[in-house]
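Hi R.,

Here's the input for the 2'-deoxycytidine-5'-monophosphate complex you asked about:
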Amino acid sequence: MIKRLTIAIDGPVGSGKSTIAKLVAKKLGYLYIDTGAMYRCVALKAKKEDIPWTDEERLTDIARNSSIKLENTVEDGEPKCLVYLDGEDVSAAIREQDIGQGASVVGKISGVRRALVPLQREMAAAGGTVMEGRDIGSVVLPSADLKIFLNASVQERTRRRHLELTEKGEMISIEEVIREVTARDEQDSTRADSPLVKTNDAVEVDTTGMSIPEVVEKIISLAHERLDKS
Ligand code: DC
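And here is the predicted structure with 2'-deoxycytidine-5'-monophosphate in place:
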């Protein structure tokens, strides 16, 4: 039987994780799991219910008692991940800029992480998975077959994030995006529980100046190396 790998992709905001992870999963015929979408769902639900993102108890409650489902699909040849929160399609709503910041705040709450991590492990249990986030190689799937740490310069990540938001019609200045990127970098890397780190066994890929197909090819070739060895 052909072995199906478990691939963990971690990295900061704007490193290209989602775009790259989706394409790698599609090429390999693997399941793509966006763990950031799950933290975003918790932040979105809290916002809808007027609960502050810092209310640890109620946020933990939301994470424990909500139904969060991810579904892989292809639209116009492009791989997409649909996100359902309590049965409602929130794929677009969770991508709003403030929800990204909220997810970063919510991600600091250990109770929230303790509720979401087992769901993530369950989703990856069958193998043939590309999972992206901040703590995948370090905490969620420490024995993943291949760990990638995607990175890019702050300038490049800010440029990408600005383009992503303005393409969706959000009116936002580059200065505001720099503030968002640096605030999330700081918050995600310095939190006490499961901070963003590059593990020793992860391969770091600096995507500054690399095209999307180049990054995808690099990861696919690393995956093939792992498959050849197994
Ligand atoms: O990858 P993203 O931008 O959709 O993630 C949104 C936020 O969610 C991120 O800034 C921190 C949090 N997050 C996390 O704490 N752990 C993960 N595995 C994924 C995301």
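One thing worth noting: The chain has one domain: 6-229.

Cheers,
M.
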